């Protein structure tokens, strides 16, 4: 908290005391701050100064996690392979089936990617290292997928699996069959892991949408949620 006070003064007065110095200096600067913490909650618990948050919270941009950006996985997969090649002086590529298998797994709705890009970097490094011939095979991919599943299995599933009692009205919940509850839980889980209504619709209707000439996945999902008195915004906020 003392350091936060110093940061606040530096922002407001442009004055700060350099480490090891007994004379203040002045600096005109712009501040960009990032966090993976809930600062509003930290303010409530006394861990973060409210006046400092008010100062730095001028413009706020939410960066979705990797699991919410499945379209970013394939280009970053190529990028990580390029970085590995530069670092080790050896080019490594996937064979076609291995690449398809990894992408199918990594872009699925239940791919946790709890470590975000660190997970992807580590996965590519391991697969490339275990492919001394310069070719990542299906066997190498399958072993890596098992590693990822094992590392993600320790995640608190309560943080992913929605509690319908917290989302739906108690009276309305009594009117939902157990079969529909199971389907609704999975639908809400996918919604929470998706960056938009359309993105969630594409995941949830991935098979049937391919059988139609045109498909409005967002509208389909919106109507499904409305059956239970839910809206996209409320599901995301919950």
Q: Can you give a write-up of this model?
A:
With 238 residues, this protein is mostly helical. It has 13 helices and four strands. The strands form two sheets. It has a two-stranded antiparallel sheet with strand order 1-2. Strands 3-4 form a two-stranded parallel ribbon. α11 (197-204) packs across α12 (217-226). The protein is flat and about 70 Å long.
Q: Going across the major beta sheet, what is the strand order?
A: 1-2
First-residue to last-residue Cα separation: 31 Å
Number of DSSP helical runs? 13
Weakly predicted, low-confidence segments: none
Summary of the model, kept short:
This protein has 238 residues and is mainly alpha-helical. It has helices at 2-13, 39-44, 50-56, 73-88, 96-106, 117-129, 138-152, 164-167, 170-174, 178-192, 197-204, 217-226, 232-237, and strands spanning 15-16, 25-26, 93-94, 135-136.
